TrEMBL record:
InterPro entries recorded: Aldolase_TIM, DeoC, DeoC/FbaB/LacD_aldolase, DeoC_typeI
Enzyme active site: D89, K152, K182
Keyword Cytoplasm on entry: yes
Protein name: Deoxyribose-phosphate aldolase
EC number: 4.1.2.4
Keywords (A to Z) from UniProt: Cytoplasm, Lyase, Schiff base
Catalytic activity: 2-deoxy-D-ribose 5-phosphate = D-glyceraldehyde 3-phosphate + acetaldehyde
Name of the gene encoding the protein in the UniProt record: deoC
Entry's family note: Belongs to the DeoC/FbaB aldolase family. DeoC type 1 subfamily.
Keyword Cytoplasm: yes
Amino acid sequence: MLERTELARLVDHTLLSPTATAADVEALAAEAADLGTYSICVSPSMLPLPFSPRVKVATVVGFPSGKHTPETKAFEAAEAVRNGADEVDMVIDIGALKSGDATHTEDEIRAVRDAVPAPGILKVIIESAALTDDEIVAACTGAEAAGADFVKTSTGFHPSGGASEHAVALMAQTVGGRLGVKASGGIRDWDAAQAMVAAGATRLGLSGTRAVLDGGTSEGY
């Protein structure tokens, strides 16, 4: 089991509410620095930040539906990088993958990868709760082939749900340590966070980070 500070260093402290304000984001960044999280994750419209955060900055692309063209996602990603994003979490077109078009999945990830050159980090949100095991494997395989750095379970907005230990373990097995695995969506307490890490998660997406780290229960993302 990880210690509190070790767990905090795996966290993308997240605020993706449509009603978030600039003041909310500044408070998020201050709290992230206080808690010792790896990064903050905010909507792309909040960038560039009008202050210097003491943690990495992540944002989202094609969020939350993924039903955007590859060109749109690539443009959004490139703009986010220009505006100071260190990391980009993109949502794939879930429907295309479920229809059997794994080539589209790989191609759209590659388009965004090209827009987020190293040292930028690209995470691929596959919405694992909406996929079969075979589809999870296909999404992870496509993400690796396209040059992504992480695969990520969920947006936290899909009605099918968020992260599960089963999905995280399957994703970790598929990428075999060559990519990171981010668990996000529905991780609301200490035990759940620890369980995701035990299953293979190397990064966590949390909004109620302080409550989780303090051993309580979060009502957030």
